[in-house]
Amino acid sequence: MAYPWSCTPPLIERHPDNPILRAADWPYRVNTVFNPGATLLTDGTTLLLCRVEDMRGHSHLTVARSKDGVSNWEIDPEPTFAPDIENFPMALTKDFRTFERLGGA
Fold this sequence. Notes:
Number of strands: 5
Strand content: 15-25%
Order of helices and strands: EEEEE
């Protein structure tokens, strides 16, 4: 296979069935699912920490797990980490480069 941008193959390649997780896969109603952080657990399970946008446009994090990292995803039945908007209104910020640093230098 030729790699026109480099002499070496890419470090990461998209799965042919990408995206492997869609909003329709979620056990509760969501607007969209963004690129997750991923890790391989010691038992071989792939764990994804997905940023999910609800129907109000607010983001939260939800865990999804798969034995093969591609199919049969087990998605937490509700947000794993929801924003505390009352106490931390900056939790609605999608680009954290846009708010001022808190608490000094």
